[in-house]
Specification:
Elements lengths: L3 E8 L13 E8 L4 E5 L6 H9 L6 E6 L2 E2 L10 E4 L11 H11 L4 H14 L15 H13 L6 E5 L7 H18 L2 E6 L2 H7 L2 E6 L2 E6 L1 H6 L4 H6 L6 E4 L1 E9 L2 E9 L6 E5 L4 E4 L4 E2 L1 E7 L3 E8 L2 E8 L10 E4 L5 E4 L2 E2 L11
Parallel strand pairs: 3-8, 3-9, 6-7, 7-8
Antiparallel strand pairs: 1-2, 1-4, 4-5, 9-10, 11-14, 12-13, 14-21, 15-20, 16-20, 17-18, 18-19, 21-22
Family: Belongs to the ABC transporter superfamily.
Protein name: ABC transporter ATP-binding protein
GO molecular function: ABC-type ferric iron transporter activity; ATP binding; ATP hydrolysis activity
């Protein structure tokens, strides 16, 4: 296991980058804790896999360093970093049995056969393949092969880090849930440092202790699922986390109130002067349709998703969403939206603005 330090790390696929726009990975400076489980979350092309491949040694960064427990491994090959990596598409040895595929990383490091047999049995139970150990990998389904890849990644107990690059893409939905549960149990039992790349917020939020949200080549927030939901540090986090994502409305901020379309909206905190492109962000969960107060809306449609209703509406030319209880009656006179002040965030140029503390300074 190892703590991982990203020191002035950046990468460009352009031979001679001229500016930030040429970098697939903008400068990063982060400390990732030894033994923690992280998810790298973001849309396709945001730099997740680039960062993972730099950590694993498959890619040399354009500048900066990677350190494992303070040791500079930037120029070390993958084999000398003592990591295990599982890729999006299964990598297995077709001519080997499932048992020999799972045993390969252990035998390659000279473990005795008793230890190999015990670990293979344990991991086979984790991935639900104990009855297939004698079968050749050739001819197995794609999801079965990916389970073998996952098992090979998990079979060693002495690795510095386990890296997963969208490993559940080819797995059926029910098995995805089971394997995520097994990965969390593995982390709990053995305390490996784990980094899990995904574009699926459910996978990220259910797997990780901390989620690293990436956007356009940079890390925009590292936090717990609760932190990402309640206080998104960037508008992209508010949009990307949650279903539906956070509502954003252009606003002016004066002290403890916002002004949207000339109408006041009370805030849960007071703010100093806010400059730039200013907006308030409020999640649908904290937005309530009402027949009085609030801001005027035109309801466009109501989606009943079983556990609750999603109300899609127009607010002064801006699309917003609200969430209502499944048994809540939506009447024709309900043409206003009320926001919970305690859950309104303020943004300037897409970044969250901290409210003033009681002493007048930023919190």
């Amino acid at each position: 296991m190892a703590g991982i330090t990203l020191d002035n790390l950046a990468h460009s696929y352009v031979a001679q980058p001229r500016g930030p726009e040429d970098y697939a990975l903008q400068e990063l400076n982060h400390e990732w804790e030894d033994g923690a489980a992280y998810a790298l979350l973001g849309a396709s092309g945001c730099g997740k896999s680039t960062l993972l491949n730099i950590i694993s040694g498959l890619l040399q960064p354009s500048r900066g360093r990677i350190l494992f427990d303070g040791r500079d491994v930037t120029h070390l090959p993958t084999a000398e970093r003592n990591i295990a990596q599982v890729f999006q598409f299964p990598v297995v040895y077709d001519t080997m049995t499932v048992r020999d595929n799972l045993a390969f990383p252990l035998r390659n490091r000279g473990h005795d056969e008793a230890h190999v047999a015990a670990r293979v049995q344990e991991v086979a139970r984790m991935i639900g393949m104990q009855d297939m150990l004698g079968r050749k990998a050739r001819g197995l389904t794609a999801d079965a092969k990916q389970k073998i890849s996952l098992g090979r990644g998990m079979v060693r107990q002495d690795v510095n880090a386990l890296l997963f690059d969208e490993p559940l893409t080819v797995i059926d939905p029910h098995m995805k849930w089971e394997l995520r549960t097994q990965l969390k149990k593995l982390h709990h039992d053995f305390g490996h440092t784990m980094i899990y790349v995904t574009h699926d917020q459910t996978e990220a939020l259910t797997f990780a202790d901390k989620v690293v949200v990436m956007h356009e080549g940079r890390v925009v927030q590292i936090g717990t699922p609760q932190e990402l939901f309640e206080t998104p540090a960037h508008t992209f986090v508010g949009y990307f986390i949650g279903s539906p994502g956070m509502n954003l409305l252009p606003a002016e901020i004066t002290g403890d109130r916002a002004v949207v379309g000339g109408m006041p909206v009370p805030l849960g905190h007071a703010y100093g002067p806010v400059a730039g492109r200013v907006a308030i962000g409020i999640r649908p969960e904290f937005s309530r349709l009402s027949d009085e107060g609030g801001l005027p809306v035109i309801v466009r449609r109501i989606e009943d998703v079983g556990r609750h209703k999603i109300i899609r509406a127009d607010l002064l030319g801006h699309d917003i969403s609200m969430i209502a209880n499944e048994d809540e009656v939506i009447g024709p006179d309900m043409t206003r939206v009320v926001f919970d002040p305690a859950h309104i965030n303020v943004y300037a140029d897409d970044w969250r603005v901290a409210p003033r503390a009681h002493n007048g300074k930023a919190a």
